[in-house]
Design goal:
By secondary structure, this protein is α+β, with helices and mostly antiparallel strands. It has five helices and 22 strands. A hairpin with a 5-residue loop joins strand 1 and strand 2.
Length: about 375
């Protein structure tokens, strides 16, 4: 979940306000690609939503409907007609709340920052579509360079995004894994694809503040959707169980360390009590092994293989269950967060891979639904990825 800079007491009040009542302030700021704020168009916002879908390379997108009867939107840089140049503009959207008695001051949570990808006007109505900043990195490097043996993968990610795309905002956890061989960049190398390769099983995405995040998956649940008073759950959850993508064994094979004859490796197994373990899926005393083999020559220590195997196993085991429901928006949650849905009948933890944040008061947020919807439509059935 994204940090809001609140104390523990303030965070508790913030979570309570989300589940009770609050005033909403959605701010829409126009920026250049260096994050310099140029203008604000919040008063033009009629409807919109932020969509998060981790099945896509660009996990966040935003769609807005703005009312601009005077034709004054500041999206064109130096052309005399509407929307001539909008590709050098980004939007930042914050979801702010205030709740007298709980939160006397506004707390603004960034839910989207990214470039404008499409713009259309029909009379006074302007429809704007935006993509996360991954879009700026989905491009050929158009230069050649090499990264030496022993270069930290985090250093390669930072250098790729900063030297080629001009990125300056990073939130990358301390990770010591280094390359075991030379990595070359050519003019045709896709920057984002190579950055994801360097992440090697860790999560790599741009958050709502437009910061590049690289972190391991979270196993601990960070938020619980509950029914009733003080809860944010608005509908009965729809739960699907599918095993087609599940693996209960992850076998990671690394490189051959100096002086050794064989590559290092580690195998991670699902706990035998897990419903998708080899033992649980077996029959007549015979286990059912669903194996994913991963090869990475940069892994020269068994501890690195173990970390990768356990992280990938956690991700694979989360695929067997998908949950869909409507809820009061919880804007600080991020893609890949581990969350829990709890009702009177059951409690289920799952990875937050798809959700929608509406940008108008009174609309519900859908979790687990991937289709585009209008801001005031309460529910749409989920299509699995």
């Amino acid at each position: 979940m994204i940090g809001l800079g609140l104390t523990a007491t303030e965070s508790a009040a913030y979570v309570q306000a989300l589940a009770t009542s609050y005033q909403l302030r959605v701010r829409v700021q126009v920026m250049d690609t260096t994050h310099k704020v140029l203008d604000e168009v919040s008063d033009m916002l009629q409807s919109g939503q932020v969509t998060v879908d981790t099945s896509r390379d660009i996990t966040r997108s935003a769609s807005l409907e703005l009312l601009d009867p005077k034709g004054v939107l500041p999206f064109d840089s130096n052309a005399p007609y509407d929307a001539a140049l909008f590709m050098d503009r980004m939007l930042r959207i914050t979801y702010g709340i205030r709740s007298p008695g709980l939160l006397d001051d506004w707390v603004d949570c960034p839910v989207f920052t990214g470039p404008i990808s499409k713009l259309s006007r029909s009379g006074p109505v302007v429809n704007v579509e935006c993509l996360g900043k991954e879009w700026l990195a989905q491009r050929p490097a158009w230069l050649t360079k090499n990264y030496r043996i022993g270069t930290r993968r985090t250093a390669i990610i930072k250098d790729l995004l900063s030297s080629i795309t001009g990125e300056t905002r990073f939130n990358i956890d301390d990770w010591t894994l280094k390359t075991a061989h030379v990595f070359g960049v050519t003019r045709e190398t896709d920057v984002w694809s190579l950055a994801k390769r360097m992440a090697a099983g860790r999560l790599l995405y741009y958050d709502g503040n437009g910061t590049l995040v690289c972190r391991p998956a979270l196993a601990r649940s960070v938020y619980t959707f509950k029914q009733g008073t003080g809860g944010t759950l608005l509908s009965d959850p729809e739960i699907d169980y599918q095993a087609d993508e599940v693996r209960n064994i992850v076998w990671v094979v690394g490189g051959v360390p100096k002086g050794a004859k064989y590559p290092v490796q580690h195998t991670a197994y699902a706990d035998k009590n897990h419903p998708m373990s080899a033992q649980s899926l077996g029959r007549n005393g015979k286990s059912r092994h669903l194996v994913e083999k991963i090869e990475d020559n940069d892994l020269l220590k068994e501890s690195d293989c173990k970390e990768r195997a356990e992280a990938e196993l956690t991700r694979f085991l989360q695929l067997y269950v998908s949950v869909g429901f409507d809820a009061i928006p919880v804007p600080f949650l991020e893609e890949h967060d581990a969350v829990t849905v709890q009702t009177d009948r059951f409690s289920q933890r799952f990875g937050l891979d798809q959700f929608v944040i509406p940008l108008v008061a009174g609309a519900s947020s859908s979790v687990g639904y991937v289709e585009r919807r209008t801001a005031n439509k309460s529910k749409i059935r989920r299509t699995r990825k």
